[in-house]
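Quick illustration for those who missed Monday's session on complexes.
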Amino acid sequence: MSHSHQAQIDAFMAQVTAQNPHEPEFIQAVQEVAETVIPFIANHPQYAEHRILERMVEPERTIIFRVPWTNDQGEVQINRGYRVEFNSAIGPYKGGLRFHPTVTLSILKFLGFEQVFKNSLTTLPLGGGKGGSDFNPKGKSDTEVMRFCQSFMTELSRHIGPNTDVPAGDIGVGGREIGYLFGQYKRLRNEFTGVLTGKGRNWGGSLIRPEATGYGAVYFAAEMLRTKGQNFDGKSVVVSGSGNVAQYAVEKCIQMGAKVLTMSDSKGYIHDANGIDATKLAWIMDLKNNKRGRIESYVQQYPGASFHAGERPWGVACDAAFPCATQNELNGDEAAKLIANGCQVVTEGANMPSTPEAIEAFQEARILFTPGKASNAGGVATSGLEMSQNSLRISWSREEVDERLLNIMKDIHAQCVTYGTDESGYVDYVRGANIAGFVKVADAMIDQGVV
Ligand code: NDP
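Prediction with NDP bound:
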């Protein structure tokens, strides 16, 4: 990179850091975009003239609110709720809700900022937003979760709507929470609309939405492998997480003939050298989704496997890795281990799971690496398809939605190749995703004037 580009990036980041103190995750997400987009803007002065990137790092609106509720003992509890409405240049705000004790404004701003680029890549008319709460659904009864969701939605309902802002799930927000949130919105507004996505099948949800993020990540990885004349057949795969994204990434890897060796949760990872097959995965899904159990129980059910408490799975030798749990869960040292063990492709299912040091290591080793904003966009894309079906009041078949998802993932891959290929033919998917996502939003912002 030239000295003048580096100086521009440093000046821009100094300003962002000064304006957003105590927001390290948000600053990390902006830095990654700035490093690739600022050199591009240098050759496209219209974006500098309209101060597009400066406007894009400022959310259009941030809502922070009190969420009071009572637990099963009748005691009053207080949590903090958020919705960051980041950018609506190309469509209504769209992005998930996260319920996890680590939720802060910084986490939601990083997620909302990335969402703007991701949603642009999907080819659908979706703006970007994100929200959630520091509420921890773990260990709570269904009635406690319901009362929390009802209180959260009582305030959030003033700010969202099917043409304004359409939230979905994320960590800690699955089908149960979306149901309670939707029920309360409908009751308050007396309207049955597609105000949330990830809804139940018999009340407006789309087929394939639960599978979409995980399936989409594997479709994207298969496209990357295809550029090398390879596929997943016989490849060994390491996955982190055991939630929604991880479960369906594993399912699709198995369907494509890969051998999945690991899954994890926040307490550690399981390693099954014989491979997690469809039967074992069905057992895990029942454990996590119905019994709300811990992944370590796997080794009682399948004694050939081992559980590694407090560890992450990146030391296990593999051909392909899918980080599908949370942000900053794969650091530079772990990236070096993956590379040394022969890993050829790293596909982010989670948002920002690789630290900047890890990304640098993958790119220096010139292995296939894709950021979540490209490879996990299948979830929000299928949410976009759910919105279309709700508006049309129709329901597409499983095959039809899956086909659309596959084509969207192929399209996102092609956009990354267009903007990310360097002179040697290496595809920098980070640069490709950031620039392709940026251009569509930036051009819309120029068209719409200074708003
Ligand atoms: P879930 O809540 O279904 O699962 C999250 C998984 O990650 C669980 O196994 C959880 O373990 C683990 N995890 C969560 N926090 C931590 C932590 N701090 N340290 C270690 N492990 C952790 O969430 P999703 O599968 O929906 O989301 C996973 C990732 O994918 C997130 O980054 C999310 O933003 C991203 N994503 C999700 C999409 C979706 O459609 N759901 C779309 C695009 C991106 P435990 O049970 O122990 O907490």
